[in-house]
Amino acid sequence: xxxxxxxxxxxxxxxxxxxxxxxxxxxxxxxxxxxxxxxxxxxxxxxxxxxxxxxxxxxxxxxxxxxxxxxxxxxxxxxxxxxxxxxxxxxxxxxxxxxxxxxxxxxxxxxxxxxxxxxxxxxxxxxxxxxxxxxxxxxxxxxxxxxxxxxxxxxxxxxxxxxxxxxxxxxxxxxxxxxxxxxxxxxxxxxxxxxxxxxxxxxxxxxxxxxxxxxxxxxxxxxxxxxxxxxxxxxxxxxxxxxxxxxxxxxxxxxxxxxxxxxxxxxxxxxxxxxxxxxxxxxxxxxxxxxxxxxxxxxxxxxxxxxxxxxxxxxxxxxxxxxxxxxxxxxxxxxxxxxxxxxxxxxxxxxxxxxxxxxxxxxxxxxxxxxxxxxxxxxxxxxxxxxxxxxxxxxxxxxxxxxxxxxxxxxxxxxxxxxxxxxxxxxxxxxxxxxxxxxxxxxxxxxxxxxxxxxxxxxxxxxxxxxxxxxxxxxxxxxxxxxxxxxxxxxxxxxxxxxxxxxxxxxxxxxxxxxxxxxxxxxxxxxxxxxxxxxxxxxxxxxxxxxxxxxxxxxxxxxxxxxxxxxxxxxxxxxxxxxxxxxxxxxxxxxxxx
Length: 594
Prior knowledge:
Blueprint: E1 2-9, H1 19-27, E2 36-41, E3 47-53, E4 67-70, E5 76-86, H2 89-98, H3 108-119, E6 129-137, E7 142-147, E8 156-159, E9 163-167, H4 170-175, H5 185-194, E10 208-209, E11 214-219, E12 224-228, H6 232-238, H7 245-263, E13 270-273, H8 278-290, E14 296-302, H9 313-322, E15 326-332, H10 341-347, H11 356-367, E16 372-374, H12 379-383, H13 388-399, H14 405-423, H15 431-434, H16 438-446, H17 460-470, H18 472-479, H19 486-512, E17 517-519, H20 525-531, H21 538-542, H22 551-554, H23 565-570, H24 583-593
Parallel strand pairs: 13-14, 13-16, 14-15, 16-17
Antiparallel strand pairs: 1-3, 1-9, 2-3, 4-5, 5-6, 6-7, 7-11, 8-9, 8-10, 11-12
Helix pairs in contact: 2-3, 5-17, 6-19, 7-8, 7-20, 11-19, 13-16, 13-19, 16-19
């Protein structure tokens, strides 16, 4: 796991790369890669690559970046700066060797260079992993950018029509002092609507995210080609039939075991974030079956919750014992976290109402000496674990038959909102206005503020511009286009919005704040292709284990990974306005990060 940066002066009028700017961008990401650094600028000054390294695979200096692939004359033909891990790199390395390629390191970075040399842009179809990278192709004077299928690893760029600047963090690009001058209304509006900034937007008009599952080729002169090589929606739409229940267990076990085995590939110890939920406990069980060594697991316990139903530590310790883990429970006093709030906001690359819990868990894992940890993230989206899988279809099916519902619902909202806001959640005023469609019902379920509330938070003209530019309802509807099954629709919405824009992004910045790589075996392209058509539940997930989980885990009511970190950080005497749910916290985050 690392921090990458690149500056490419591709336009005829573009100035040469400013080495000071490249260094400032890269240096902002030192915590992402404290184990090494590198920088390369082309002879003509048109391209600069930089890298901060967290050494996980081939920890020797041979894995340093930027890494070059030389031609027969000893000249630099390809160069790469890369963030992530390719879990099937050993298999790909062997394939390349058999094809006549000469590889001199044991790193996955070198494998990427040779794959590109052989397959070009199609190389991404062979990868299993989480990744974002930039490859300079000296043969055709262009750069090739790629981001993994689900967007586990971030990749941002700023393009002024002459020069493109690329980095693993928005704040890194801002550190170069050439970007970030103008706000993007859609990014700001998106945060208050959803609690995160939805891709491809950021808070800044000149900074965008490379979409997940996408490659971009940009050559000298400005010609470019953007390709979406992995489409979550299409995979869900294509799987219109499900196997019989008797066929689920063996197939599910095979694909899960394969993913877990590959995600354990590392030259440093791998730990597991262990809670009392089905996702992490199942991964722990599967990992114990495929690993030849005893694995490390850790649970964060809060003193204030000790002995309550929210205390997951005792059950997590029991599971660790069953599967022979080297387990550690770290007990902390939650109120002490208030001292960390400035560091938390500094680490948060884009504002998010979530992620604080992961930040503190990662901090404790890193203090144990871990550089890699397995997370159960993704299980709820794949196996229907959220209440939204029942609530959203129920709401839509209950209201969609009503003629003229949107018009009536808007009138009801205008009349009722002033009263309902004083008594309960303001969302109830929008129940009929939005509840009759999947996009609207999903916004009701996941939304932070409703669209009509935005002028109360932001400048009204700015809010109106952002709402129009964001096109939220159109994009939500596009997310489920062509998907017939109700559960698959919700899965697409949860994966492409909540998981991609919040959970995965939070895992990246919160882990990297402590130089910790967080891996997600349940968020995997190969696994998704095979599981997308299954009618599998969380109980089916747990049923893949050879040694079953205890009944206390299997029958435990879902609580989610909730800890009152938000309340602790706000403090008992907070001067912030007291608002329902996460709204007060959202305002504090917005002011602290933006």
